[in-house]
């Protein structure tokens, strides 16, 4: 059997470990041949690939980024479903002599995996995203690393904030789901966590910050990039569009900080963590999860369990249908936010 490995979408810590796990199981245990396409679908379209064997993945587990590269290049032209012309795609697939794909990515990539499988082109999904917003799995690899980096930033901001009696506002990633803000805020002991799912009024945010000041502390506010104040029509955006044609988010902390300062009289500073959350070595948790995901995907290919994604359910990695994952944005549940919100301020 010959498998093609491809990464698509944003980078996420643990992708290298996932490739290593898949290659060691597929090549050394099952006797498969594997190739990796460079820079996502660009490599597939342009014939840019490398062979993947034990020597190619040596020492990959602790490395951040991804050796194959990734991109948001679309897999095919056209729309979705019956609108897609797969003639050229099938020809490429046959030219490489592939029996199936192992596709590493988030919601968009797993949606493509599902479309390909439905069209008779076998695919298995490996779920990665730092946002942890993909349905069908408890955790995606990359999330734990992003939370750890954000929690460390909170620890550092707290000391400088306390020194100057300032309110510090930290912006983390999270367009539609606030998992990073929630987990990092809880880990770092932030007094306020603002999530895209649950708008809050400026007056309420200022009340929380003031209550912290009144008991002799300095506030630490964690805000996800997709958060919007109650009554605002949209989240704060920067110029341009992202790789999916959506308005590019970012800067909500820089907007919020002066509003908090004006509303409370407390000196307030903003920090945008940005792509630091994606970089560096993955945590041990993400290395293990990614490795297990890669091994499970290779085993699924051997068993012919195409059209599935390697998902973490409890402490087990299970193969779940793409229908359990795609087009199912996993957001922070209302009861989870409500329980944490009781401790704000």
Automatic annotation (TrEMBL):
InterPro entries in the record: ATP_PFK, ATP_PFK_prok-type, Phosphofructokinase_CS, Phosphofructokinase_dom, Phosphofructokinase_III, PKF_sf
Binding-site residues, ATP: 10, 72-73, 106-109
UniProt main location, coarse: cytoplasm
Coiled-coil ranges per UniProt: none
Record keywords: ATP-binding, Cytoplasm, Glycolysis, Kinase, Magnesium, Metal-binding, Nucleotide-binding, Transferase
Required co-factors: Mg(2+)
GO molecular function terms noted in the UniProt entry: 6-phosphofructokinase activity
Active site (record annotation): 131
Pathway field: Carbohydrate degradation; glycolysis; D-glyceraldehyde 3-phosphate and glycerone phosphate from D-glucose: step 3/4
Keyword Nucleus carried by entry: no
Compartments reported by the entry: Cytoplasm
Reaction catalyzed: beta-D-fructose 6-phosphate + ATP = beta-D-fructose 1,6-bisphosphate + ADP + H(+)
Phosphofructokinase domain span: 2-300
Record bears the keyword Lipid biosynthesis: no
Sequence positions that bind Mg(2+): 107
Origin: domain of life: Bacteria
Binding partners and assembly: Homodimer or homotetramer.
Record NCBIfam families: PRK03202.1 (NF002872)
Function of the molecule: Catalyzes the phosphorylation of D-fructose 6-phosphate to fructose 1,6-bisphosphate by ATP, the first committing step of glycolysis.
PANTHER family assigned to the protein according to its UniProt record, in alphabetical order: ATP-DEPENDENT 6-PHOSPHOFRUCTOKINASE 3, PHOSPHOFRUCTOKINASE
Protein name: ATP-dependent 6-phosphofructokinase
Originating organism: Leucobacter rhizosphaerae
Protein encoded by which gene: pfkA
